[in-house]
Every structure is written in structure tokens, then in C-alpha cells.
Amino acid sequence: MKKNVPVSSIMTSNVIKLNLTDDLTKAESLFKKHHIRHIPVVSGNHIVGMLSYTDLLRISFADAIDDDELEVDVTVYNMFSVEQVMARNLVKVSPDTTIKEVAEILSKREFHALPVVLDELLVGIVTTTDLIKYLIDQY
Questions:
Q1: Which of 7, 24, 42, 79 has an alpha carbon within 20 to 30 A of 60's alpha carbon?
Q2: What is the β-pairing status of strands 38-43 and 113-118?
Q3: Which UniProt key words apply to this protein (predicted)?
């Protein structure tokens, strides 16, 4: 297995993002349309939080809706803002953080995605799925 490989080699750099002012209906739509589980929340290009699909499940019955369905019942979503639901105290990594270091962070924490930042600007996201795909490619 290769050593000291930077996370930039496996991260997603074309990141689907939410703005702090977006609503949860938009978030639900993005999760379903792009088949993703984590969306960084930005103010400009500065990351201010991370919203996961699990965060939405905690406040709604989103899992009761067919994954192919883009329409959702927005009643619950209108009661909360992205800012109220997102995770705020993020662990961030830089593009040159090694894949091993990322794996160690994710294995010890209760989250499954890390924003990748350079000079405080969001440049990517790395998830446990990215790590699994990397490991599969090693065999």
C-alpha cells in the first residue's frame, strides 16, 4: 500500500454546497438528486458547517420518501433553518493531509465526512466512501 498519499488524490473537488441562507427543502433535493450524504455549508467560499442526510432524518420523516422522489413535505423543513440543523464544530483537513491521517480521524469520530480547506477556503470533501474506494483500488 502506498504511504503518505495526500487526501487531495481521493477527495471530491467539485463539491455540492449549500449557502447558509438556503433552506432545508433545497438540501433534501440536493441529497436525493446527487445521491450524496454530506453537504458543506458555506458563507461565500468559507465553510461554516456541514449538513448530513442523517441531520435531516433526525427532524423529519425524509426516509419515508422514495429516494427517487424529489418532492418532499416541507412542513417540518420550514420550522428549521440550515444553520440550526448543521454541525458547526468541524474538523477540517488540508489537501496535503495524508489519507492515513484522514482515516485515523474518521475512525475515532462520529462523523463520516471532512471538509478539505486551503487558506480557510473550501476546496474539497472527503468521506468514508472515498476511503473505502481507495482501499478497494489497492487490491
A1: 42
A2: unpaired
A3: CBS domain
- CA distances 76 to 13, 56, 89, 124, Å, are 32, 10, 24, 30
Query: Mind giving me the DSSP string for 62-122?
Result: GGGS-TT------TTGGGS-HHHHSB-S---B-TTSBHHHHHHHHHHSS-SEEEEEETTEE
CA angle 24, 91, 53 (to 5 degrees): 25
DSSP label at residue 44: T
Tens digit of pLDDT for each residue in 88-136?
999 999 999 999 999 999 999 888 999 999 988 999 999 999 999 999 9
